[in-house]
Design a protein that fits this description.
By secondary structure, the chain is mainly alpha-helical. It is built from 2 helices and no strands.
Length: 60
């Protein structure tokens, strides 16, 4: 598992939270939706990395 991939996923999550917060402040539903989508993408990336880790452990 790549630390770089985990860092990218974490950064995407932070970016999504910031965008969602901006949408809440400005009342822009599009920003809120895009922020939530980025957070969901981050969760998927973390899940993929978890699967990679489990497969690697099983092989080793």
């Amino acid at each position: 598992m790549s630390i770089e991939d985990r860092a990218k996923a974490a950064a995407k999550n932070v970016e999504g939270k910031a965008q969602e917060a901006l949408g809440n402040v400005t009342g822009d539903p599009e920003d809120k939706a895009q922020g939530k989508a980025k957070q969901a993408e981050s969760e998927v990336r973390h899940g993929v990395e978890d699967v990679k880790d489990k497969v690697k452990k099983a092989i080793d």
